[in-house]
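Lab notebook page, bench 4
Experiment: in silico fold of construct C2
Operator: M.H.
Input chain length: 79 residues
Purpose: comparison with the prior construct
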Amino acid sequence: MELIVNRERCIGAGMCALMAPALFDQAADDGLVILRAEARTPQQQADAREAVAACPSGAIRSAEEPARASDCAGDGEAV
């Protein structure tokens, strides 16, 4: 599963890194999301879906989801 993060939208809550540490981390300098890997295994995909749902700012999404209008102006990055 391809994941897309928008660091401009991220507020550094860290829910993604807590729920899916193999897939997400937080930058040491600003606490914003870092995408570590795409979700390959069924467990990672389940963890990724939970992290996407838990993100309070909507800064992460699956590439399978349609882009939101506010994502188009952002700095989305995919792995």
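Observations: The chain has two helices and five strands. Strands lie at 3-6, 24-26, 33-35, 60-62, 76-78.
Next step: discuss at group meeting.
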